[in-house]
Amino acid sequence: MPRLAKRTEQVMPFYAVELFKQAAVLNAQGRDVISLGIGEPDFTAPPQVVETMHRAAQAGLSGYTPPSGISPLRDAIAHYYRQSFGATVDPSRVVVTSGASGALLLAAMALINPGDEILMPDPSYPANQNFIMAAGGLPRLIPSTPEKRYQLNADDVRAHWGPATKGVLIASPSNPTGASIARADLQALIAEVKRRDGFVIMDEIYLGLYYDERPSSALTLDDGIIVINSFSKYFHMTGWRLGWMIVPPHMLAAVEKLAASLAICAPALAQHAALTCFDPEVMHIYENRRLSFKQRRDYLLPEFERLGLHVPVVPDGAFYIYADISRHSRDSAAFSHRLLHEAGVAAVPGMDFGPAHAAHTMRFSYATGLDRLQEAIARIERLVGG
């Protein structure tokens, strides 16, 4: 048998997927499992978007597109960033990709050489490390704290930047915490990285799911950073595999060349359908759904505190609660197992997101209906007591 590449041993596992598999087995056995695990909206693409896809298919628009995506969609994304997040973006800088994952892969391949070190916060989304390693880079997790909203800041850059460090990969709002980076802190962080001629890759896939003040894009602070976004979360098109990146002009030719070879193009029908996402009546649907997520968050936060699941940082975006379970357990994997098998509630142990807080934290997703969240709280209460 041929030997597998060493990188297959280095790839970070995603325990949320394993949890999903276990929950599926229990469901197949007739158990009712409430999933607070997978970060996938319970909403799907609005009917108008699906209808546009059907029309595009009937019109024969399923062939290859340019590697950077169809021009109308790039224009629409640039307009969306200007109208919603205050960033002026030339559509030529928009590259449509096969999901945010495709964008992260292109960014890593364009920027990272073997041996390059990239700083990331601990906790953070585990798959992001794999994109760095796929390009031969070395992800370096920097433990963060609730006082820093579980994010990197300028002090971290000063303290941990070394000879091999080339950039940072950050997210705002973040998975697993749902916490954004304060604007002043982000500006200071970007400035520290630029002083060292480094790059900033900013994951903004949850930017549209905000619950307090409307955010602005990091591009309003510095348009030389690389921004990643997606139609999966705010636009509820997870399986359509469509995302985008916004890159500085000097990167565009290299990214397009890589895109043409690695992906050819993002799914054509998904691109044509996504144009309808930006119609005013469809945006109204998305905004109502955003408020539904806020209602769920506002219900869960006091319930978690009542049950001794402390939330050190109130999430202001995404659809996650990152809770400290210390009152009930110092082994999040064991507690996750109990929740699933004794209470029928699936939630992700902290080990998925880095070692710093792995033992005493868990991520709970509220991408499911309020009635199911209420039942989940009742089940957790029966397990741990009030």
Automatic annotation (TrEMBL):
InterPro entries: Aminotransferase_I/II_large, AspAT/PAT-like, PyrdxlP-dep_Trfase, PyrdxlP-dep_Trfase_major. It holds the Pfam family Aminotran_1_2. The keyword Transferase applies. One of its GO terms (molecular function) is pyridoxal phosphate binding. The keyword Transferase applies. Its cofactor is pyridoxal 5'-phosphate. Residues 32-380 form the Aminotransferase class I/classII large domain. Keywords: Aminotransferase, Pyridoxal phosphate, Transferase. It comes from the Bacteria. GO terms for biological process: amino acid metabolic process. Belongs to the class-I pyridoxal-phosphate-dependent aminotransferase family. This is Pyridoxal phosphate-dependent aminotransferase. The lineage of its organism: Bacteria, Pseudomonadati, Pseudomonadota, Betaproteobacteria, Burkholderiales.
